[in-house]
């Protein structure tokens, strides 16, 4: 149930991508104008997390899930009915803003369920969530074949309605009734606590750098596979699915062994593996080897990045008791913000090759390793977070 709630974000981002041109034609606008709805959605989501994260720490998680899913459902229905692009863009912002209220509390629930094994729970949620971006474009294409682009948003409306009913009937956690663990501080004070907590900054930076590397892959992979290597869109889709599969397997492996080894050790080992894979990616493309070398190297690189991201998040969350929502908001907002820098950075260093993409991913992974130097002594010794 928690993973299904988290999945509304990738579903909402990816399901309508195949319908971009159709939506543009419907509004008598350019595809470029409609593409702005993606950036607007990300901006609304980031602002929503900043707002609702501290609020969840004060009023509890369950009310925000209900408010978030209700608001998401109504705005999604409005998107299906709108006849003007300007209204469409405004509703995309509101949809993301309200929807974030439901998703920002999920890591807190996972922490409540799994306790010291939060990284294991986050791996399970992450594993299920990976299905959403993999399947969403295909689902969107199928729906588009059955009707027009509005049907995609009707389906999302129904999805959120079913989740709302499920939450209303089934979501009952001890923290929903206990008020003693809630924060009574102001929003700004909660943020101050998160940023000033000892030992948080290195792991928070690790989260952001993993996001930068991952968004670099998302941004550059279509260009690298289809333009640099000259592959078809069908082949690109298969290779993209392979990389998502690597992330899914990595999350599954992490969920099985993180309890034994601890998040800090898993983060360190994954960073070491990712560093080797990242430099191999640089060498493969420096010597312009065939595309399948890049494919082979990306599998362990992305898998390692998945383990790095999950464990960095878990370590940060475990450092807070009353400010879990605020910590989640900080992670999510900065992650999307830093991820948004990937496109401009790649454009700035554009060479017509895959090297800028490879260099950016390698730099991000190396910086994650440097961040861990600030957590010594004891990186390879399991400690209570």
UniProtKB/TrEMBL annotation:
PROSITE patterns named in the record: MFS (PS50850)
TM spans (from-to): 39-56, 63-81, 87-110, 122-145, 151-169, 203-224, 236-254, 266-287, 293-317, 329-348, 354-376
Domain called Major facilitator superfamily (MFS) profile: residue spans: 1-380
Source species: Shewanella avicenniae
Membrane topology annotation: Multi-pass membrane protein
Similarity section: Belongs to the major facilitator superfamily. Bcr/CmlA family.
Subcellular location: Cell inner membrane; Cell membrane
Source species, domain of life: Bacteria
Major subcellular location class: membrane
Sorted UniProt keywords: Cell inner membrane, Cell membrane, Membrane, Transmembrane, Transmembrane helix, Transport
Protein name, entry field: Bcr/CflA family efflux transporter
Gene3D superfamilies in UniProt: Multidrug resistance protein D (1.20.1720.10)
């Amino acid at each position: 149930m928690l993973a299904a709630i988290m999945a509304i974000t990738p579903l909402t981002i990816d399901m309508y991508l195949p319908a971009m041109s159709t939506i543009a034609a419907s509004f008598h606008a350019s595809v470029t104008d409609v593409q702005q709805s993606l950036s607007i959605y990300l901006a609304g989501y980031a602002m929503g997390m900043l707002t609702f994260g501290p609020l969840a720490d004060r009023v509890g998680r369950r009310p925000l899930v209900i408010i978030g899913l209700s608001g998401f459902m109504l705005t999604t229905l409005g998107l299906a009915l709108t006849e003007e692009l300007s209204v469409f863009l405004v509703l995309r912002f509101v949809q993301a803003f309200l929807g974030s209220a439901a998703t920002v509390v999920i890591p807190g629930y996972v922490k409540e369920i799994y306790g010291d094994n939060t990284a294991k729970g986050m791996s399970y949620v992450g594993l299920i969530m990976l299905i959403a971006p993999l399947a969403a474009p295909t689902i969107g294409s199928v729906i588009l074949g059955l009707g027009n682009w509005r049907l995609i948003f009707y389906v999302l409306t129904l999805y959120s309605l079913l989740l709302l009913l499920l939450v209303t009937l089934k979501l009952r956690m001890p923290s929903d009734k206990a008020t003693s663990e809630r924060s009574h501080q102001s929003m700004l004070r909660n943020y101050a606590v998160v940023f000033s907590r000892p030992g948080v900054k290195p792991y928070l930076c690790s989260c952001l750098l993993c996001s930068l590397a991952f968004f670099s892959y998302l941004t550059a992979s279509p260009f690298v596979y289809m333009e640099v290597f000259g592959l078809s869109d069908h082949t690109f889709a298969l290779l993209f699915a392979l990389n998502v599969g690597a992330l899914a397997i990595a999350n599954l492996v992490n969920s099985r062994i993180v309890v034994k080894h601890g998040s800090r050790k898993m983060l360190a080992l994954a960073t070491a593996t990712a560093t080797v894979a990242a430099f191999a990616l640089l060498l493969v493309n420096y010597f312009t080897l065939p595309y399948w070398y890049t494919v082979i190297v990306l599998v362990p690189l992305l898998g390692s990045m998945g383990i790095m991201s999950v464990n960095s998040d878990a370590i940060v969350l475990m450092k807070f008791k009353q400010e879990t929502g605020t910590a989640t908001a900080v992670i999510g907002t900065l992650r999307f913000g830093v991820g948004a820098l990937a496109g401009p950075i790649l454009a700035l260093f554009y060479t017509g090759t895959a090297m800028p993409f490879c260099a950016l991913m390698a730099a991000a992974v190396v910086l994650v390793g440097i961040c861990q130097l600030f957590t010594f002594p004891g990186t390879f010794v399991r400690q209570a977070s």
